[in-house]
Automatic annotation (TrEMBL):
Signal sequence residues: none
Official protein name in the record: dTDP-glucose 4,6-dehydratase
Transmembrane segments: none
Keywords linked to the UniProt accession: Lyase, NAD
GO MF annotation terms: dTDP-glucose 4,6-dehydratase activity
Family: Belongs to the NAD(P)-dependent epimerase/dehydratase family. dTDP-glucose dehydratase subfamily.
Gene giving rise to this polypeptide: rfbB
């Protein structure tokens, strides 16, 4: 039975990944290690929390003792590191925690895995692997043309993307220096169930349902390449099972949308299906994000060629199913709308 240490498994993508893996395989054991920051939510996991082959551990990836203990207690085969501070706007407000968690936390995890998996001759136990879940934001920003490939130079702009790029370089250095078995995945914008409503899609859905202004940064023409979260989970699984150590894989949706197109799509669905008062009048152009990357778009040919991955979910069905999920799970959203969320919202948007 393979043992997976999934870090950040109470967040958006991590929880989707745990659901995906436990549905697909019944001969694996998952240890979900999460610090339960504002973004971590055990409600994302209620369907599987009692499974015999699942265990939750509350810990910080940058806590040396706690991570060592997990490696002592379990014979971990794969580390899948989702744990991170993940929101660009928060990184502009408070960069320090991004360095601590995303850079130092990743280095701490790497060291614990290396100590445990290293043999006396400097080789590593067979079959072990460390997967770093990274982002297309490490490549910076594109103009109207072109796609990011795995050989695009790193040129991150925000404290968030810079911390992720720094972590990528440390992870890569462990392969280059020690031949420690790693893979890095760099994915475009995910969407789907369980996404924290500081991010664009759940924020827009939530504001529409409450007839609140929809804050659109700048001219609304920044472009993101949207990927349904389950397609991302499938890619990570393929990388774990099939990728050679040291390889980096981009994962993208081939699904570019301007922010204004995205917002209008959500408004139209909710106007037609939920409440006629939800209209484009809710759209409010606000001051742009500082250093706002203009366009992200991914070339995923390498993962398709090497591992047979391609996205299965079309934008039309993915966004429809996503909106329906938030409609059917309004209690989940309401539980997040606490004082701390409201304070963050005020701080972020009242000055815009
Ligand atoms: P998220 O913010 O929803 O979840 C992050 C999780 O990490 C939370 O459960 C949080 O509690 C946990 N965490 C934070 N600090 C921790 C610490 N010090 N120790 C242990 N756990 C900690 O993020 P997400 O959107 O699910 O992103 C997951 C990963 O995927 C991140 O590494 C992110 O950089 C990357 N990524 C995200 C996207 C996207 O579109 N959301 C795209 C590409 C890559
Ligand atoms: O590209 C992958 C990245 O996608 C991940 O690495 C990040 O963890 C994830 O948060 C996401 O980053 P973005 O900054 O692209 O996502 P966000 O949902 O914050 O914003 C999407 C776009 O919408 C972006 O151009 C900014 C814009 N936006 C966002 C918010 C929250 C607005 O116009 N208004 C808003 O209120």
């Amino acid at each position: 039975m393979k043992v997976y240490l999934v870090t950040g498994g109470a967040g958006f993508i991590g929880s989707n990944f745990i659901h995906y893996m436990l549905k697909k395989y019944n001969d694996i054991f998952i240890v979900n290690l999460d610090h339960l920051t504002y973004a971590g939510n055990l409600e994302n996991l209620t369907k599987i929390e009692k499974y015999d082959n699942y265990q939750f551990v509350k810990a910080d990836i940058s806590d040396n003792e706690a991570i060592k203990n997990v490696f002592e207690k379990h014979d971990i085969d794969y580390v899948v590191n989702f744990a991170a501070e993940s929101h660009v706007d928060r990184s502009i407000q408070n960069p320090d925690i991004f360095v601590k968690t995303n850079v130092l936390g990743t280095a701490n995890l790497l060291n614990a895995a290396k100590d445990k998996w290293e043999l006396d001759n400097g080789d590593f136990q067979a079959g072990k692997k460390f997967i770093q879940v990274s982002t297309d934001e490490v490549y910076g920003s594109l103009g109207k043309e072109g796609l990011f490939s795995e050989t695009t130079p790193l040129d991150p702009h925000s404290p968030y993307s810079s911390s992720k790029a720094s972590a990528d370089l440390i992870v890569k250095s462990y392969f280059d220096t020690y031949k420690f078995p790693v893979n890095i995945t760099r994915c475009s914008n995910n969407y789907g169930p369980y996404q924290f409503p500081e991010k664009m899609i759940p924020l827009v859905i939530n504001n529409c349902l409450n007839l609140l202004d929809i804050p659109l940064y700048g001219d609304g023409l920044n472009v993101r390449d949207w990927l349904y979260v389950e397609d991302h989970c499938k890619a990570i699984d393929l990388v774990i099972q099939g990728a050679a150590p040291g390889e980096i894989y981009n994962v993208g949706g081939y699904n570019e949308k301007t922010n204004i197109e995205l917002v209008k799509t959500i408004i139209k669905y909710l106007h037609d299906n939920v409440n006629e008062d939800i209209t484009e009048e809710l759209i409010t152009y606000v001051q742009d994000r500082k250093g706002h990357d203009r366009r992200y778009a991914i070339n995923s040919e390498k993962i398709t060629r090497d591992l047979g991955w391609k996205p299965d979910v079309t934008w039309e069905s993915g966004i429809r199913e996503t909106i329906k999920w938030y409609l059917e799970n309004q209690a989940w959203m309401e539980n997040i709308m606490n004082e701390s969320y409201k304070e963050y919202y005020r701080l972020t948007y009242e000055t815009k």
